[in-house]
Amino acid sequence: MLIVIGVLLLLLSLVSFLTFGILLIIRAATNKGLSFKINLISLAGSVVVGLISIVMLFTSVPNEADKAFSDTTENSNDIAQKQEEEAKAKAEEEKAAKKKEEEEKKKIEEEKAAKKKEAEAKKKAEKEAKEKKAAEKKKKEKEQKEKEQKEKEQKEKEKEKKKEKEKKAKKETKKNKKTIEEKIVEENNSIKKATFKDGFISLKLDGDGSFTVNTMFTNQSLGAFEAMEQAFKDKKVTTASAVVNVTMTDTKGNEEKKEVLNFMYDRDTFEELNFENFRNMALGEPWRIYNESDSYYIHPGIFNDLKEDISSNLSHGTIKAK
Q: For the chain, what is the radius of gyration of the CA atoms?
């Protein structure tokens, strides 16, 4: 803007200078027109205006150049910034495109993995179903086999049971043919001999195998008592006696088999007892068998060697008479 004004002022000063110069020449030649003084002042004013316009031109040109440079710099900065923004936007677009591509790739991989997993799960399910079916089939076959085996075993068991029953029946028949004495000796290890006559049965026992007198007294008494219970099951038996023989040594060292224990029960006396309960009581207190009997005898040598809790509880000492 200053350049335009300066140029206009310079043109104006030139026109004024030329005009007033011509007028001054005319005044000098003809002595007509404006006065010489006015023409000089006007001419000097034109010169001053011209100088001012020149100064303005020289002043404004660098400013305009600076402005142009500034504008150029600003434009360059704007361009650089714009390029930077465009590059940044492009980078963002590329980043977004890359991210999208990666997401799509990831999605494809996930879908692929899901399909693979689904296929594996399906394959696994089919395998498990097949194994389950095979297991069920195997189980069914096993159960069928076990059932058949069980039925076979049951049949064999029934057959064996029938055979055993027949054998038992045969044995029972044979047993029934045996005498009461034979049955008692056969079924009671403690009884060595049994004799039966006219309702009276005598049971013989041997006490030589016992460790002590007390053991012999307890075991032989219980064994005889249990054998009597069996004997009284036969209705022909009315009285039962038990005799225990033991080898005795006299003062001279001579040995002799002697009767050391003897007790007797009538049927009525025996049947008054609750056999099971009484037997359990007699296990720890064998003297009860003698106290409840109709009669008993205990050899004095044996009686003296018995424990006090046995000998002191025997109601009639060494002999109980009927």
A: 75
